[in-house]
Write a structure and sequence with these properties.
Length: about 575
């Protein structure tokens, strides 16, 4: 009896242990199963969504959170997340994507034609989600201030109108393309060009004059990989305001192909806005040089810059700023381009000939817009470039990029890898040999800014120095004593060693390996001869709006010099 009584408790204890183990296992496995199921459903929705995006005529992009109160244009429900079209601005819930494709047309880049030439088109209205602080073109009162899908916006002229103010006459009214009509390529212009090409009779000037008196159509070339990765956002904002055919992503199409659109426009009318760093600008200017070789000089555009890179020295020189982080609306950027003045920029040929037997010499040729250098700044650029090639994901911010430059500059202050440069190189300016002091670096400048915003040639500004310009066919050659000296110049605590100005610069590297760079593209170079000569001019746009004190003083000095030159003539 005692044995039977004692056998009860152990069995209940075993049952309790198994029960605890079962529920513990469930508590571990169930969240994993739910997570896997949710991931499967999410990936399934993403596949279906990508399939809809691929087949759609809209330029859909998905967002997890809209930046302002948004309503679905199909079901009129308030939505926090969903898809929006980068071209026409249509916003829809994920479940309404297919209905939106069936019921709403996107912006037409070319008007459908039955063989007739068109010179106008009607408004293209979309209901709801009008921009904040927009006003009705009829009653001049604010639009979009009700918590529902309401009011209309034209996808071309961006005019907005209340539901109650929308009239039949307004629906059929001709669209004038609004504030940026001088920059937009109308769909009917491209259809007319296409029709004329079939008949082999094209008069661009006559066609353009029938559209607008001062028409300067713009082409947007954006590098989505530059600097702070803002290119993707800018592409969508420009497509909303312009004809999507005018906006190109340089990660998907080369500048040479994109610039062929200029050949469909009137002579010397096109303007190009390059959204990227100085390297992207150089890439575009090289493509423009190719147009000259092809005999397309009459279609050469003028180039403006929206600085998205790290250094942006060329952009700074032309008064477009040291960097763009979204602080200026896209509309204001387009206004700045319309008001900009045309100037010429010198471009230079940099020829690097390695030492060796005559028939074994290797020749490297670069095109320079900004500067050439040998020494500590080229070493910093080379180290930065090597680090970015290994881990490109780390270099997505302009601040991080500059911090890495600062690190390598501080390291070189201690190591001094480029010391005794004067013993390793010979410098000739216009054929005249220059005696070099004990330097670590030599910089050949074409523009006013260097090293991410420093006016190297001016230095502290307390000494008289020859005027530096970007269109005078002269190069400024300066020397630095090391990385610490570069840092002092950047904060205006020291002056550079001004070696002179010249039309032709020749530098001979005798018997060692040194870092060199052209416009931020660095490499390690052995014994060689570097020859820099004038190549051509580039047509650029100078932003004549806001200027810094340094810019204003520099421009006043240049204007004073021009006046003196005119008086002498």
């Amino acid at each position: 009896m005692e044995g039977e009584e004692n056998s009860g408790p152990p069995s209940s204890g075993v049952f309790a242990d198994w029960s605890l183990a079962f529920w513990t296992l469930c508590s571990v496995i169930l969240p994993v199963v739910i997570t896997l199921w949710c991931s499967f459903q999410r990936s399934r929705r993403q596949v279906l969504r990508r399939d809809i995006f691929r087949k759609s005529k809209h330029d859909w992009h998905y967002t997890d959170l809209f930046g302002q109160p948004t309503y679905c244009c199909v079901c009129a429900q308030h939505i926090l997340q969903g898809a929006f079209c980068n071209c026409c601005g249509l916003c829809v819930h994920e479940g309404c994507l297919k209905k939106a494709d069936r019921h709403f047309l996107c912006k037409e880049i070319m008007m459908r034609s039955n063989g007739e030439a068109h010179t106008s088109m009607a408004h293209r209205w979309i209901r709801g989600n009008v921009p904040l602080c927009s006003h009705c073109v009829v009653c001049k009162q604010q639009c979009g201030n009700q918590p529902k899908l309401c009011d209309y916006r034209c996808v071309w002229c961006q005019h907005t109108v209340h539901d109650e103010c929308m009239q039949n006459s307004l629906k059929s009214e001709k669209c004038r393309f609004g504030e940026f009509r001088n920059l937009i390529i109308p769909p009917y212009y491209l259809s007319t060009i296409n029709h004329m090409r079939k008949d082999k009779r094209i008069d661009y000037g006559k066609l353009a004059s029938s559209y607008c008196k001062h028409w300067t159509p713009i082409i947007i070339l954006a590098n989505t990989r530059s600097g702070n990765n803002m290119g993707e956002t800018l592409l969508g904002e420009f497509k909303i305001l312009l004809n999507p055919v005018q906006v190109f992503d340089l990660s998907k199409i080369s500048p040479a192909k994109a610039l062929q659109l200029c050949t469909l426009l009137p002579y010397n009318s096109a303007r190009v806005l390059v959204c990227g760093g100085d390297g992207t600008v150089g890439w575009v200017l090289d493509a423009i040089d190719e147009m000259k070789i092809k005999g397309q000089e009459r279609y050469i555009p003028q180039v403006a810059i929206l600085p998205l890179g790290t250094g942006n020295d060329l952009s700074n020189t032309l008064a477009w700023g040291a960097g763009y982080a979204g602080e200026v609306p896209v509309e204001q950027i387009l206004r700045n381009v319309m008001e900009a003045d045309g100037i010429k920029l010198d471009r230079w040929k940099v020829q690097v000939t390695n030492k060796g037997y005559y028939n074994l010499r290797k020749l490297k040729v670069f095109t320079m817009n900004n500067y050439f250098s040998i020494g500590p700044d080229a070493l910093m650029a080379l180290n930065f470039h090597a680090h970015r090639e290994k881990t490109p994901s780390l270099f997505s911010s302009r601040i991080i990029n500059k911090a890495v430059y600062f690190f390598y500059g501080t390291k070189d202050c201690l190591v001094q890898e480029c010391k005794d440069l004067n013993k390793k190189v010979e410098l000739e300016l216009d054929g005249e040999r220059i005696d070099l002091p004990n330097l670590e670096g030599i910089i050949v400048l074409n523009i006013g800014y260097w090293g991410g915003g420093c006016r190297l040639w001016e230095g502290m500004g307390d000494e008289p120095y020859p005027l530096a310009r970007y269109d005078d066919g002269l190069l400024e050659v300066a020397g630095v004593y090391g990385s610490f000296h570069c840092a002092q110049i950047q904060v205006k605590l020291a002056n550079p060693v001004r070696l002179g100005q010249a039309h032709t610069v020749r530098l001979i590297l005798k018997n060692s390996k040194m870092p060199m760079q052209v416009d931020g593209e660095p490499w390690a170079q052995g014994p060689c001869t570097v020859t820099i000569t004038h190549k051509t001019h580039a047509l650029m746009l100078y932003h004549s709006g806001e200027q810094t004190d340094d810019d204003a003083s520099s421009m006043s000095e240049q204007e004073h010099t021009r006046e003196q030159t005119d008086e002498d003539i």
